[in-house]
Design a protein that fits this description.
Elements: E1 2-8, E2 14-20, E3 32-36, H1 47-53, E4 58-62, H2 79-82, H3 85-98, E5 104-109, H4 111-122, E6 127-133, H5 142-154, H6 162-172, H7 181-188, E7 191-194, E8 197-200, H8 204-215, H9 220-224, E9 230-235, H10 242-251, E10 255-260, H11 267-270, H12 272-290
Parallel strand pairs: 3-4, 3-5, 5-6, 6-9, 9-10
Antiparallel strand pairs: 1-2, 2-4, 7-8
Helix pairs in contact: 3-4, 5-8, 6-7
Length: 291
């Protein structure tokens, strides 16, 4: 079963957290895991991962601000603050504290991974272990932001059906070099039925604003401050290159590395069995050290 629990984030923003339970027990004393999705994602993107994690852990996934069923904070002149790094990190911190998850294992994909390592660097007392899934520490550069803005304008919205969205993002999108069912499934799940067709749950303008914080800024210094055991995972065809991933592991005081073949950026969708095989030994090792 999945139970919704509301969390109050930075600036009073209401966040939807989802606890994946085996039963309806009131309290779960097992080690806590907080799952943080990437840009444009949602908590339920972690459903497959949560199913096996909850066998031995208390598992919560967070709809981050402006995503899923969480509230959208103020836009306009306040957007750079309400969608800035400080706000996302403060939200994750609030979820850990308000839900009593500490010491928590943070598992983040893309933007969620950046949020996770920033929280681990700032609040080491809250974080026991960290998994970074396909997120770069280097700045991407202004050209990358323009490419994304141009890409957003090419979306053929509204989609007539959810399956049409799945096909476009998985096959017809010019950014897709070959059919990518995992990518198609990822984006189909962030579409909702509007009066005129299927549209994204999020604002594309707000996503660009959120993305600016790692387009123009690098995050190596914060990465080096992470003291807990950390696993850096990349898809072979993902956005995090092997050389940068291995440098991230070197910079981390307690870093480990895993690579998943035949997987792109959405590797937990592309190769869920290999994703589990990469994570389980790391997580089991953390659990053994804690016992």
């Amino acid at each position: 079963m999945v139970q919704r629990v509301d969390v109050t984030g930075a600036g009073g923003v209401r966040l939807a957290a989802w606890e994946f339970r085996e039963t309806a027990a009131e309290a779960d004393p097992r080690p806590g895991v907080l799952l943080l999705h990437g840009l444009m994602g949602r908590a339920f993107h972690w459903s497959g991962t949560a199913r096996w994690l909850r066998e031995s852990r208390r598992v919560v996934a967070l709809d981050q601000r402006g995503h899923g069923q969480s509230d959208r904070p103020p836009g306009g002149p306040e957007a750079h603050t309400s969608f800035g790094r400080e706000a996302f990190v403060a939200d994750a911190e609030a979820a850990v504290e308000q839900l009593g998850l500490a010491p928590v294992t943070l598992i983040g994909h893309s933007m969620g991974a950046l949020t996770a390592w920033q929280l681990a660097a700032r609040r080491p007392d809250l974080v026991e272990a960290l998994v970074i899934c396909d997120m770069r520490a280097s700045a991407l550069g202004a050209a990358s932001q323009q490419e994304w803005e141009d890409w957003f304008h090419r979306w053929p919205l509204p989609f007539p059906t959810q399956d049409a969205a799945r096909r476009w993002f998985g096959e017809d999108d010019p950014r897709v070099e070959r059919p990518d069912p995992g990518r198609g499934a990822f984006f189909a799940e962030v579409m909702h039925e509007a009066p005129d067709g299927w549209r994204p749950l999020f604002s594309r303008r707000e996503m660009l604003t959120a993305r600016e914080t790692w387009v123009h800024d690098a995050h190596w210094e914060e990465l080096a401050k992470v003291r807990c055991p950390t696993l850096v995972v990349r898809g072979l065809d993902g956005e995090l290159g092997r050389a940068e991933a291995q440098e991230m592991v070197r910079v981390l005081p307690a870093g480990q590395y895993a690579e998943i073949p035949d997987a792109g950026h959405y590797l937990h969708y592309d190769q869920p069995t290999a994703w589990r095989a990469a994570l389980e030994p790391f997580l089991d090792g953390i659990k053994a050290e804690a016992s």
